[in-house]
Amino acid sequence: MGDLLSNGPDRPPWRPSRRLIAAAAAVVSSAAVVMGIVALNGPDDQRPRAPESPSAAASSASSGAAFPPGPDAPVTAGQTPGLVIAGLPLPRGGTSIRRDRAAGTGPLTVVLRRTDGSGALGRHGAVVTFPVAAPSGGRPIRVGGVSGRALAREVVWPVEGSYARVRGDLPQSELIAVAAATRVASGRPRVEAPRGLSVAATGALWPAQLNETRYGSRATGEVDELSGGLTFTGVARGGGFEDALYATGAQPAGTVHGRPAVVTSAFGGNGALAWEPAPGVVAYVGYSGAALDRGAVDALRRLASRTRLLSPAQWRATGPSTSDQTNDLGLPD
């Protein structure tokens, strides 16, 4: 993906190859940092919120006044909402729409989750992607009647003249079972979910539209934990976000508005807190500045509890800039 923080502080780039070795080390470090975060299940902000019209959103954005609280906009199928932090003014030019016009011509995904209630964004599930590049390493395995390769958290195997991949935090035997249950028809992956799993979402690997908001961290009131860098929010559709969570080993981080959340370094900056407000839709609050530690995660949780989803009309009313880019997160297909 084009740099999420393109107008903010520098951040280390992610490169598409030789990443999994480095990611493994990062996962160990991240797990140590956020160990025990699952216990941070404090109550979400449940204060009553009054409805707001798109014109009111535009007024707040143009006047520099604090963006008012309000109910989350319903997430309509196929549409991408915006995400703002209530109580903070929107900086001039702080909202943007990043369009990837080629997203629909790239790889496609099927997201699977456990059916026992434990499945959530980046937890107890898997993402099937087709097509992907041929594997460059890994242990030989059998997937149905063909030879595949097993790597860390993933299985890659040949199908329909190319290769498919299933990546997740399930046991390897279950990843192989998902691979064996995958067929490709008219270029689209289809999965007959094995027992205990269900299909949660389907679609392109990378989002056709990524809606972002950027704030100065000093304005958020969390400068002590996040430093004086950049705080950002984002919303997007696409299995690639969840695939990236499995690739980097996201850790559980309580809930946001009643939805299970994870903490990750996959979305740019030093870290981000991500959750799924609706199936196939990923929302997150992240920052660039101080090191990712327990205090930073607490600060992200506080900010996430203040977020509200905006309808596409409300989002357009904030006057977002629009640009074309590749929304690939810098990870391999």
In short:
The chain folds into two domains: 19-101 and 206-324, no CATH class; 107-204, no CATH class. The protein contains seven helices and 19 strands. It has helices at 19-34, 54-63, 172-180, 223-226, 239-248, 294-305, 312-317, and strands at 82-85, 95-99, 108-114, 125-132, 139-143, 146-151, 154-159, 162-168, 182-185, 188-191, 197-204, 209-216, 230-237, 251-256, 259-264, 271-278, 281-288, 307-310, 321-324.
Keywords:
333 residues; 2 domains; alpha+beta; 19 strands
- Helix % is 10-25%
Task: Label the overall shape.
Answer: globular
Proportion in β-strands? 25-35%
* Terminal CA distance: 11 Å
Tally of domains:
2
Q: Unreliable segments (pLDDT under 50, ≥5 consecutive)?
A: 1-51
Count every beta strand, where a strand is a DSSP E run of 2 or more residues. 19
Mean pLDDT: 83
- Largest pleated sheet: 8 strands, mixed
Order of helices and strands: HHEEEEEEEEHEEEEHEHEEEEHEHE
Helix- and strand-based class? alpha+beta
Spatial ordering of strands, largest sheet: 14-15-16-17-13-12-2-19
Give an overview of the whole structure.
This protein is of the alpha+beta class and 333 residues long. It has two domains: 202 residues, no CATH class; 98 residues, no CATH class. Helices cover 20% and strands 35% of the residues. A hairpin with a 2-residue loop joins strand 9 and strand 10. The longest helix has 16 residues. It starts with 18 loop residues before the first helix and ends in a 9-residue tail after the last strand. The relative contact order is 0.23. The N terminus is likely disordered.
